[in-house]
Hints:
There is one protein chain. By secondary structure, the chain is an alpha/beta fold. The protein has a single domain (2-163, 189-222, 278-285), classed as 3-Layer(aba) Sandwich (Rossmann fold), CATH 3.40.50.150. 47% of the residues lie in helices and 21% in strands. The protein has helices at residues 2-22, 24-29, 31-37, 39-49, 66-75, 88-101, 138-148, 167-180, 198-207, 227-237, 240-246, 250-263; strands at 56-60, 80-85, 106-110, 123-129, 149-160, 211-219, 222-224, 268-269, 272-275, 278-285. A 7-stranded mixed sheet has the order 3-2-1-4-5-10-6, with helices on both faces. Strands 7-9-8 form a 3-stranded antiparallel sheet, with helices on one face. Strand 8 (268-269) and strand 9 form a beta hairpin. The radius of gyration is 19 Å and the shape is globular.
Amino acid sequence: MEAKTLSERDQMRRGLHAMWSSVAGGWAEHADYADARAAATTARMLELAALQPGERVLELACGPGGLGLAAAERVGPNGEVVLSDVAPEMTAIAAERAAAAGVGNVSTAVLDLEDIDQPDGLYDAVLIREGFMFALDPAQAARELARVLRPGGRAVLAVWGPRERNPWLGLVFDAVSAQTGAVIPPPGVPGPFAQSDAHRLHSLLSEAGFEHVSVSEHPVPLRTRTFDEWWSRTTALAGPMAKILAAMPAEAVDGIRDRLVETTRPYTTSHGLELPGVSLIAAASLR
């Protein structure tokens, strides 16, 4: 029974890795937008990480690498930042962006945050922006973060807060569920709101051996000029959702879009759409 469970989990993990590879093109297209929207989150994460010149930093689930590139400025030319993701397509995008920006103190690696193929105690800081919630085994992922940090090392991660406080994406899930009759995300598949409980997130890090754990809310509103702009970006960047929508017939997708036109009306202003959003930012350190 245990071997079967492990096999099923491995299959799910491979499926998740393939899914992120399949949506890398959308992330490449909208990388600058994603960084701009997350700019305040990035600034707060770097403040909590307290990076110093010459330090070695690991970014996990890096996507296009915006957070890691910002960290590279903090650690300077004598420091090092490794941009990593489970999808090699994502790390290739991050490498291209680093080269285009002339950032020379970064490298890339294909790494799984639940099984980080790096030596113990190698890093001064580990950063994860909106990736930790997709771990199949978050307790194992938290232990891995602790393992690759040196004594005194810091971990800072951001995850999405409760679904009901993030209608910019929660409404999309509701519309897809209404159209298909299926629960989104499917049972057993970690989704964007899988780590939205601040107390649980605090416990995961504490139980992994971290000290001075803090979890705080951080507003991340989404403002966009038009519904179509929000719809195109969300369907391109929403990970598992993007893959689900891509597999649907056009008439079903049109039905979802029409439903969202109605459900987003309360958030329509003279400047466009203004949808609330909130992240949880966790910071912790090792003794």
